[in-house]
Amino acid sequence: MAKGLAENNKNRQVYDVLQSNTAQLQSDVFLDNGMGVALWSNSHGTTVYDKPNHHTLSYYVQGGKNTKRSTRGGDIYGGQDKLCLMPINHRSVWHYADPFSFFHFYFEQSHLQAFAEQVFDKEGRHIELKERTFTDDPFVNQLIRQNMLPLDWTSTTDQLMLSHAQQMMLLHLVRQHCHEPFKKALPTGGLSPVNQRRVMDYIEASLSHSFTLSDLAAISQLSDFHFARMFKVSFGCTPHQYVLEQRVKRAKTLLSQSEFSLSDISAMCGFSSQQHLSQQFKQRVGFSPASYRRSQNVR
């Protein structure tokens, strides 16, 4: 589901500027949908962005009071939980004086345009992202801190949730941070019974492999955003949560009916590691996989 940076850096100019500067990369992932996220830290220096060919959302996770953007009207200082939006082709100069960490979300104009057309059924050619510098946005704060940062970005299962969070971020940006924003999305219900069965069958057959939100949406011939919303109406949970439940369910069967090792079972159920299996299993079942297996062998 995630591609290596080498395949994506053509349209990642802000990312490249930071890599060649004083910033330190903590983690990153670029999904097959062409969008990416990265967590950075920095403590000193100056960064200049000169007309990047993509949009960047920047969110200050920790620190940043002595980070500033120089503008013609004077310096603007940042701080924890502050949001910056750096649209395509913008210019900006930033100075750093103290340690801080920040989150970046990279996306292209085509993502914004396609999202506006798919979700709002309106022409998206002229949609334009506003430039923001150190503003407050409670929705972005909650989405990043509660839904994006806690995820294991290397896990194909968690990448499903990350992809869904990206869709929610785009929806919010289109509604709140674009010139002439779109307000009312198309109405949506649940998936049809036929599509529910098709999606369930696909997930069941693919549990040991990685697959994307786009793969699931394609089964119903829907956009990622509409599929995720309609899936939740039909199943009462997100696709990410449903897939985790099915993987844990299969693990329970294998633990009680086979002698496979925990490492083998984690791979057969599509978990990224034995540790990931143990974490999700205990969270949903209340026991560790080993304890559950012992309890099933008690006669």
Automatic annotation (TrEMBL):
- Pfam families (UniProt xref): HTH_18
User: Quick check: keyword rRNA-binding in the entry?
Assistant: no
Keywords attached to this Swiss-Prot or TrEMBL record, sorted alphabetically, are: DNA-binding, Transcription, Transcription regulation
Q: What domain of life is recorded for the organism?
A: Bacteria
- Domain HTH araC/xylS-type, first and last residues per copy: 197-295
Q: Which PROSITE patterns match?
A: HTH_ARAC_FAMILY_1, HTH_ARAC_FAMILY_2
Checking Gene3D superfamilies in the record gives: Homeodomain-like (1.10.10.60)
Instruction: Output the Gene Ontology terms for molecular function.
Output: DNA-binding transcription factor activity; sequence-specific DNA binding
- Is Transcription tagged as a keyword? yes
Please identify the protein, giving its name as recorded.
Answer: AraC family transcriptional regulator
